[in-house]
């Protein structure tokens, strides 16, 4: 449940993009008292959310912008973000919504383009991606990485307070997107290495749950291992939290950024190779924890 403190019930808040994360974030904002209106490319998620919490439904991005002071978008990739923000009838070109916040994972280059176009139209655009899986989104325990200075966005702390446990302001536009790619690169590297470690331990006769106990209690422990443990040990019994194809997308963006800045990342390249192979093998829509299954089935 979102915290009651620091909310702004008088603010008209728009939400664009109601996937696994966006639905939970919008619900928390509505429960915190914001006047929330939502839009999604396919109408079913918006209609479903409206039966659970008090939200209005916009028929178009133009209507969403016209009826919102601030819009939060949670979009899956550059293609979706470009269409929603910069397309015909998109958020930047539409009247209203003086402040737009993109909280999904998109490329820093696209952030730069959207921010420039928004500024030319007298709007503020902030890249503020989040770290945390679907449960953290449901519990309003996300980490926000904001590409700007808090002083320039005095209306946003209450919004973030309804969805997140912590906000780190990184100072410059695009730096939120950069940091998000760096964090996800690390997460997917851990996911790959853990999968290999458990596959090796299991092949040598160690019970998978016991091997996980050891890893969780070792110097290699990381928070994601604990909250994702059920998915690693019984992926099929739990809802998908983060898909393999999204993992490949994020790691690919990180490698593109590294190439442009002359940074060598051989381990991350190897991680992407495995993710791409898993996608080709039919794992695209499965949770990233399914890489454990993929590695157990792989042969040298």
Automatic annotation (TrEMBL):
<dbReference type="InterPro" id="IPR006115">
    <property type="entry name" value="6PGDH_NADP-bd"/>
</dbReference>
<keyword id="KW-0520">NAD</keyword>
<dbReference type="InterPro" id="IPR036291">
    <property type="entry name" value="NAD(P)-bd_dom_sf"/>
</dbReference>
<dbReference type="InterPro" id="IPR015815">
    <property type="entry name" value="HIBADH-related"/>
</dbReference>
<dbReference type="GO" id="GO:0051287">
    <property type="term" value="F:NAD binding"/>
</dbReference>
<protein>
    <submittedName>
        <fullName>6-phosphogluconate dehydrogenase</fullName>
    </submittedName>
</protein>
<keyword id="KW-0560">Oxidoreductase</keyword>
<feature type="domain" description="3-hydroxyisobutyrate dehydrogenase-like NAD-binding">
    <location>
        <begin position="174"/>
        <end position="293"/>
    </location>
</feature>
<feature type="domain" description="6-phosphogluconate dehydrogenase NADP-binding">
    <location>
        <begin position="13"/>
        <end position="171"/>
    </location>
</feature>
<dbReference type="Pfam" id="PF03446">
    <property type="entry name" value="NAD_binding_2"/>
</dbReference>
<dbReference type="InterPro" id="IPR029154">
    <property type="entry name" value="HIBADH-like_NADP-bd"/>
</dbReference>
<dbReference type="InterPro" id="IPR051265">
    <property type="entry name" value="HIBADH-related_NP60_sf"/>
</dbReference>
<feature type="active site">
    <location>
        <position position="180"/>
    </location>
</feature>
<dbReference type="InterPro" id="IPR008927">
    <property type="entry name" value="6-PGluconate_DH-like_C_sf"/>
</dbReference>
<dbReference type="GO" id="GO:0050661">
    <property type="term" value="F:NADP binding"/>
</dbReference>
<dbReference type="InterPro" id="IPR013328">
    <property type="entry name" value="6PGD_dom2"/>
</dbReference>
<dbReference type="GO" id="GO:0016491">
    <property type="term" value="F:oxidoreductase activity"/>
</dbReference>
<dbReference type="Pfam" id="PF14833">
    <property type="entry name" value="NAD_binding_11"/>
</dbReference>
């Amino acid at each position: 449940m979102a915290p009651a403190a620091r909310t702004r019930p008088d603010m008209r808040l728009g939400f664009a993009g109601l996937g696994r994360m966006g639905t939970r974030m919008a619900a928390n904002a509505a429960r915190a008292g914001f006047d929330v209106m939502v839009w999604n490319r396919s109408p079913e998620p918006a209609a479903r959310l409206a039966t659970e919490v008090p939200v209005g439904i916009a028929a178009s991005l133009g209507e969403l912008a016209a009826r919102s002071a601030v819009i939060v978008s949670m979009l899956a990739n550059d293609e979706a973000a470009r269409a929603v923000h910069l397309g015909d009838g998109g958020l930047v070109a539409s009247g209203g919504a003086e402040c737009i916040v993109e909280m999904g994972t998109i490329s820093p280059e696209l952030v730069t383009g959207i921010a420039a176009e928004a500024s030319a139209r007298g709007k503020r655009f902030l890249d503020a991606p989040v770290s945390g899986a679907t449960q953290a989104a449901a519990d309003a325990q996300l980490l926000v990485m904001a590409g700007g200075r808090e002083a320039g966005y005095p209306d946003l702390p209450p919004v973030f307070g309804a969805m997140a446990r912590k906000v780190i302001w990184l100072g410059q536009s695009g730096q939120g997107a950069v940091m998000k790619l760096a964090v996800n690169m690390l997460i997917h590297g851990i996911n790959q290495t853990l999968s290999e470690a458990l596959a090796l331990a299991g092949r040598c006769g160690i019970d998978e749950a016991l091997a996980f106990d050891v890893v969780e209690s070792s110097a290699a422990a990381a928070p994601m291992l604990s909250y994702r443990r059920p998915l690693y040990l019984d992926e099929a019994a739990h809802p998908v939290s983060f898909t393999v194809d999204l993992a490949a997308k994020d790691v690919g963006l990180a490698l593109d950024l590294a190439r442009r800045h002359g940074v060598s990342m051989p381990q991350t390249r190897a991680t992407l190779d495995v993710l791409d192979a898993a996608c080709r093998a039919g794992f695209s829509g499965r949770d990233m924890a399914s890489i454990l299954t993929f590695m157990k089935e792989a042969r040298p």
